[in-house]
Amino acid sequence: MLRIKRGDRDAFAELVDAWKQPVLNFVTRTLRDPDEAEDVAQSVFVQIYRARDRYEPSARFAAWLFTIARNCCLNELRRRSRHRTESLDAPALDPDNDSAPQFADPRIRTPDELALVDELELKVEAAVADLPETQRTALLLFQREELPYEDIAKILGVSLSATKSLIHRARETLKQRLKPYLQTGVWEAAEH
């Protein structure tokens, strides 16, 4: 980032190559729209380039990067709430829809087991999506991006203890939300 600050365009290309997939993963999980996520991820890197002169290496780069990514996601979510639209091209995100994207676990052999794993993944994704924004963001940054608590605290603008509390509450909420489903196999029993 310091090379970019000095005007090195090759360094910016290296930075984008190194961080584009983690940023895209985070944005996709936050927005739950792969097409929109690509646009927002690109805007994250545009923001980084524009802010290059203001960058100070006082914190880890990942914390700074994911703060920008979170802010871009929040801006998009605010824009969506003001301008509700539904894409005619994109399929509806319906966890009970058989045409919804499925993610197979290669360690599972039988089609029935594959279907169960896929169904569980969709239920977990739905439960994560229902978490309050700060809990969801903290959990995704911790579990998926493997950022330390300190970086997550900086990204969210909260204390270290608040970050730990957010992650703990998110896990507890998921546990309570998924427990009835795991016991009965009926999703409606898990809804509140």
Notes on the protein architecture:
- The chain has 192 residues and is mostly helical.
- It folds into 2 domains: 2-82, Rna Polymerase Sigma Factor, Chain: A (Orthogonal Bundle); 111-190, Winged helix-like DNA-binding domain superfamily/Winged helix DNA-binding domain (Arc Repressor Mutant, subunit A, Orthogonal Bundle), CATH 1.10.10.
- It has 8 helices and no strands.
- It has helices at 2-5, 9-31, 34-50, 61-82, 111-129, 133-143, 149-156, 160-184.
- Helix 2 (9-31) packs antiparallel against helix 3 (34-50) and helix 7 (149-156) crosses helix 8 (160-184).
- The longest helix is centred in the C-terminal third of the chain and has 25 residues, at 160-184.
- It is globular.
- The model is unreliable at 98-109 (pLDDT under 50).
Q: Helix proportion of residues, in percent?
A: 55-70%
Largest sheet: none
The CATH homology group name of the largest domain: RNA polymerase sigma factor, region 2, helix turn helix motif
Calculate the terminal CA-CA distance, rounded to whole Å: 46 Å
Q: Identify the CATH class of the largest domain.
A: Mainly Alpha
pLDDT < 50 runs, ≥5 residues: 98-109
Rg of Cα set: 19 Å
Beta-strand proportion: under 5%
CATH architecture tag of the largest domain: Orthogonal Bundle
Mean pLDDT: 81
Q: Give the helix/strand class.
A: mainly alpha
